[in-house]
Amino acid sequence: MNKIRFNHLLGLEGLSSEVITEILDSAEAFLKVLSRPIPRVPSLRGVTVANLFFESSTRTRISFELAEKRLSADVVNFTASSSSMNKGETILDTARNIEAMKVDVVVIRHFAQGSPHFLADRVNAAVINAGDGSHEHPTQALLDIMTIRRKTGDLKGLKVLILGDIAHSRVARSNIYGLLTMGVNVKICGPSTLIPREIESMGIEVTHDLEEGLDWCDVVNVLRIQLERQNEGLIPSLREYQRSFGLTRNHLERVGGEKIIMHPGPMNRGVEIDSDVADGPGSVILSQVTHGVAVRMAVLYLISGREQSIE
């Protein structure tokens, strides 16, 4: 296999279709590894990975930890609540101390936009962005794209509707960059107060009519309504949001046709998506979780520059 190597994964903006395809193809190979009785390979034996999570996370953190252990890497977990950050240490001090411990790869989630880029400019370790503020979340978008590709067999020309809180969503931004690069048509849907002004300059069509968007698309990726932001008054109420933009079985039946239903999690059931849709026949939400481990294994493997076989 010809490996396309890259030094960091900071976002999908500007990433070529060749690199994205290499990651997806490698993830397919690792998906086979995960189905084995002993789902482990020695590909990153001797590589040390530090997980720096300055912001709460469950799915992404566990997914990265599993990916690292399945690759036989040495793993160091760091959380801001139990670190010297509470004593005034800066993110750069923390990173340099971790690098002095001869860490090879740093996975970082941080509430400040641009933190992974700041880190990548100042340390020798490879840096993987696990989410920075409302900017990007590249591995989530990669696992979303992998899920779509596995379900449909091809990406080019597909129509994907991204539904919900676009303004605060790093998942939406990374998906938009990645999907457009792979030849997918993208439309977004949500209340005008949750749509960033610059979105149309990216060539993305916007609709505020859910059924119009559903009638157009092959795939709908439902984003979480960020309840912690509701004191900003951007929507009248959760009930009003659910009435206009919550994905229900009735909406899907009115437009007809089979839709692939996605959600990055965690879900607010009964708000942005009803349970009978999330758990219904069109849902690939649990597949996204499985693909997340395979995608993160692929990114870690490719970014490490190791020559060990995936097998």
Strand order of the largest sheet: 7-6-5-8-9
Largest sheet: 5 strands, parallel
Q: Which segments are poorly predicted (pLDDT under 50) over 5 or more consecutive residues?
A: none
Any idea of the CATH class of the largest domain?
A: Alpha Beta
Instruction: Please compute the radius of gyration using only Cα atoms.
Output: 19 Å
The N- to C-terminal Cα distance equals: 11 Å
Please, what is the CATH homologous superfamily of the largest domain?
Aspartate/ornithine carbamoyltransferase
Q: Give the overall average pLDDT.
A: 91
Assess the beta-strand content as a share of residues: 5-15%
Q: How much helical structure, as a percent, in the residues? A: 25-40%
Run of helices and strands:
HEHEHEHEHEHEEHEHHEHH
Number of strands: 9
**Shape summary:** globular
Annotated CATH architecture of the largest domain: 3-Layer(aba) Sandwich
Number of helices in the DSSP assignment? 11
What is the CATH topology classification name of the largest domain? Rossmann fold
